[in-house]
Amino acid sequence: MKSYISIWPPLAKPTPFPRRLAILGSTGSIGTNALRVVAEHRDLFVVTALTAGRNAKLLAEQAGRFRPAVLAVLDDKAARELRLALPAGYAPEILVGPRAYQDIAESADNDLLLSAIVGAAGFPPTLAAARKGKRIALANKESLVIGGGLIRKACRETGAVILPVDSEHNALFQALCGHADRAGAEAGGDELARLILTASGGPFRGRDTEFLARVTPEQALSHPTWSMGAKISIDSASLMNKGLEIIEACHLYGLPVSRVSMLVHPQSIVHSLVEYVDGSQLAHLGVPDMRIPIAHCLCFPRRVRLNMPRLDLAQVGRLTFEAPDEERFPCLRLAKQAFTAGGGRPAVLNAANEAAVMLFLNKRIAFMDIPRLIEGALSRQRSLPDDAGAEELLALDAETRRAVIDCADAGLS
Ligand code: NAD
Ligand code: MG
After folding, report:
1. Fewest Cβ atoms nearer than 10 Å: which of 155, 238, 356, 395?
2. Between helices 390-409 and 123-131, what is the axis angle to 10°?
């Protein structure tokens, strides 16, 4: 596994301020939090582009405030709604369709891209930005799960930089700063022992299999510590989010799965830890608010003041930790197996998970059918060569989704 140096941010030259920022997925949970950071620091950014899938109303509101020259939505209906909702006297260019996100990602008009679309739809624009040598604040972890090898290769070739927005990976990034030149396997050093990702455990921590078999989407959507979009909330409940994050960490920091472990920490105050060979563990702590990692990436290496309650450890009182239960939450094991197997397995894992989460949200399958359908897809779908291109990975993604939906319709797993 060789990736460490190529996407290690401290080696890159910082972009000057004000930064020309494009946000893919600005109407989502990450996107709206990012715009709150931008609103607090208007002098540091020029917003060049904002995009949504179909939420034209919120996109129009955001655009009216931040006045980017370019907007994008997924279809003509959303584009019509968007045009009608924009303030008079402001006429941005409106791009429509899946290719639009890629065009924005590649555009010379931005020097910083926040990749915050949810799911596999975020992969093509993220790869496109990496191929153009961009600085990418990456929230869309699915991109690395599907095509981490391709993204790393693009970063190595173009000098593109990935700054991890995901709170755990951002915590690791912060705990690795100052050790970057010596910790990475690719740098020939071996001072990094392992990474420890923390997980809240989700809303069903400690629940038995009988309970898990009957949970509803409403229960699964109510996360105890973080407020997030629907898909990642279900992933947090099934622990697939942590499975995807283990793969994300392996790609970002160039380590095998055996050197990335996980710790359940229900208070979500310690966001992850780095263990060095001398036994030191460096942790990053903070209130569970995504504006912290978002601002860290958008402003890196500068730190900016954020208007939010400060962490008061005396008030928190107790921080607790426990080992994860991989028996009751099989998604963790499936993700690790898929990454170790390679050959497009992580893309199958991701596509099967996205399809199964949609089916669960639409009340067509039960919660524990999610891992069952993923396991079925992993055993049935074809493999790809390790050097497969993006088109092949996306074709496998589409095939897997169809197969999972067919299985669910047929009552199989
Ligand atoms: P969300 O569902 O709240 O928002 C998703 C955004 O993507 C919206 O703007 C939506 O309009 C857009 N979108 C959806 N489908 C699209 C498509 N097919 N094409 C183009 N745009 C589309 O999601 P979120 O919770 O903000 O998560 C975004 C990404 O960040 C995910 O990959 C998630 O795993 C990751 N992430 C989120 C959090 C969090 O706290 N929410 C934390 C860490 C990582
Ligand atoms: Mg996370």
Report:
1. 395
2. 170
CA of 286 to the centre of ligand 2 (A): 14
Q: Hey, what are 158's tokens?
A: 């173009």
Q: Which ligand has an atom closest to residue 226 CA? A: 1
| 158 plus 207 within the same structural domain | no
CATH number of the domain that 366 lies in? 1.10.1740.10
117 occurs within a structural domain: yes
Structure token digits, residue 210: 């009988």
Q: How far is the CA of 30 from the centre of ligand 1 (A)?
A: 7
Q: Give residue 280's domain range.
A: 186-287+311-316
Q: Do 39 and 111 share a domain, yes or no? A: yes
Helix (H) or strand (E) holding 251: helix 240-253
Residues with a CB atom less than 6 Å from ligand 1: 25-31, 52-53, 55, 74, 101, 116-118, 121-122, 139-142, 166, 226, 228-232, 290
Taking residue 69's Cβ as centre, other Cβ atoms within 10 Å add up to 14
* Per-residue pLDDT tens listing for the chain (413 residues): 333 434 555 555 788 999 999 999 999 999 999 999 999 999 999 999 999 999 999 999 999 999 999 999 999 999 999 999 999 999 999 999 999 999 999 999 999 999 999 999 999 999 999 999 999 999 999 999 999 999 999 998 998 989 999 999 999 999 987 665 444 444 445 788 999 999 999 999 999 999 999 999 999 999 888 889 999 999 999 999 999 999 999 999 888 999 999 999 999 999 999 999 999 999 999 999 999 999 999 999 899 999 999 999 999 999 999 999 988 999 999 999 999 999 999 999 999 999 999 999 999 999 999 999 999 999 999 999 999 999 999 999 999 999 999 999 998 66
Give this prediction's pTM. Answer: 0.96
Determine if the peptide bond prior to 124 is cis (ω within 30°): no
Distance 28 CA to ligand 1 centre (A): 5
Q: How many domains does the chain have?
A: 3
Residue 305 falls inside a structural domain: no
Same domain, 131 and 214: no
Let me know if residue 257 belongs to a domain: yes
What single letter denotes the amino acid at residue 294?
A: I
Ligand 2 center–CA 248 separation, angstroms: 10
Smallest-distance ligand from the CA of 23: 1
CB atoms within 10 A of CB 391: 9
Which of 24, 30, 247, 353 has most ligand 1 atoms within 8 Å of its beta carbon, as the pocket-test mutant? 30
With CA atoms as reference, report the closest residue to 274 among 286, 284, 288.
284
